[in-house]
Specification:
alpha/beta, 7-stranded mixed beta sheet, globular, binds S-adenosylmethionine
């Protein structure tokens, strides 16, 4: 069966393999192959592979030494990996049990298999999980060279946003000031700080802020990361006019926080504004809301508008990178 592979020129192969391995994207179940000057690196979760890599589907030999879940089942189950947790999305309890058993028996490095048991919900955007095998929902996940400790049952974290986060991280310059209004365990602020930014991350979830601080230490950037627990509308006051960059990843209700974001902006700032909208006009509502709040105080230029992923039938999760110049 053809599997998704990143195709790179052979001379770039090792750098690409290392980068994909850092993001836990290399498929351990298939061999890396070479043909006509190209290296083919099998990957899991091809839609989270950085956009600059070309994905092709091709037949590659299975790695003889590894037993994968599909080798133990009559079908190829879909799953995501988050550190040593494997996440599945199975409605049928019998099939869920079978999939979990095959994952635990396979050669995947796995401690726990969990099933999505609810949508992300509430102010803290935490999901309920059904533990199918193993125990414990705490893990350490690696993404683009950073490590994130987190407890899936206590905080929000989605490995599917890795490519989008990396796109934003690559815009960050040494010495800039970045403020993440909904910071979670730090998947924006930690890599920002690694690039030399001074960062502040706020979250209303105390567990998220505890992990954010731990992750700052774990990645040797504690000196450039301030974690603040609280409602960002109440705690952002002392950072008025402070930020060169503002991240707003609370897609269902970011518009309610735009006044706070504009107060945080200095004379020339970029807002990364995440939104969920109907496919007929995915960017318009966000742009209009930002223009309204920025008023006459700022010139507003939409520098990028992009679909991050499909969210539901006819609904898209989008991002706008918007520059505010006073
Ligand atoms: N930026 C992180 C990421 O990409 O993984 C987390 C994003 S998650 C969708 C949104 C986060 O915003 C949650 O961790 C939630 O606890 C936090 N949050 C919700 N309302 C908030 C508020 N009023 N002030 C601060 N944080 C808030």
């Amino acid at each position: 069966m053809p599997v998704p592979c990143v195709r790179v020129p052979r001379e770039d192969g090792e750098a690409a393999r290392e980068r994909l391995a850092d993001a836990d994207l290399v498929d351990p179940g298939h061999e890396i192959t070479v043909e006509s000057g190209s290296l083919f690196i099998p990957v899991i979760a091809p839609d989270t592979v950085p956009a600059e890599y070309e994905i092709v589907h091709r037949e590659v030999p299975a790695r003889e030494t590894q037993t994968m879940p599909a080798d133990l089942l009559k079908f190829d189950p879909s799953y995501e990996r988050l550190g040593e947790i494997v996440i599945v999305d199975e409605d049928d309890p019998e099939r869920a049990r079978e999939v979990a058993e095959s994952i635990m028996t396979s050669d995947l490095p796995v401690e726990t298999v969990v099933n999505r048991a609810s949508k992300v919900k509430g102010q803290q955007r935490v999901r309920e999980w059904g533990v199918l095998a193993g125990d414990g929902t705490e893990t350490v996940h690696r993404e683009h060279g950073c490590e994130f400790a987190l407890d899936l049952a206590a905080v929000y974290f989605s490995p599917r946003l890795a490519t989008e986060r990396h796109r934003v991280v690559e815009q960050v310059r040494q010495g800039e000031r970045a403020f993440d209004m909904f910071a979670g365990v730090g998947p924006f602020v930690i890599p920002f700080a690694k690039r030399g930014a001074t960062t502040v991350g706020v979250d209303v979830n105390p567990d998220a802020i505890e992990y954010l601080r731990e992750n700052a230490r774990r990645n040797d950037v504690a000196g450039r990361v301030t974690g603040i627990e609280g409602d960002v509308r109440e705690v952002a006051g002392e950072y008025a006019d402070w930020a060169d960059r503002i991240v707003m990843n609370l897609p269902h209700s970011a518009d309610e926080f735009l006044e706070t974001a504009v107060n945080l902006a200095n004379d020339d700032a970029v807002i990364h504004y995440y939104d969920i909208q109907h496919e007929d006009d995915p960017y318009g509502p966000g742009e209009r809301a930002i223009r309204e709040v920025a008023g006459d105080e700022y010139d507003v230029v939409v520098e990028t508008q992009r679909t991050v992923r499909s969210y539901a039938p006819h609904e898209l999760n989008v991002v706008l990178d918007v520059r505010l110049s006073r």
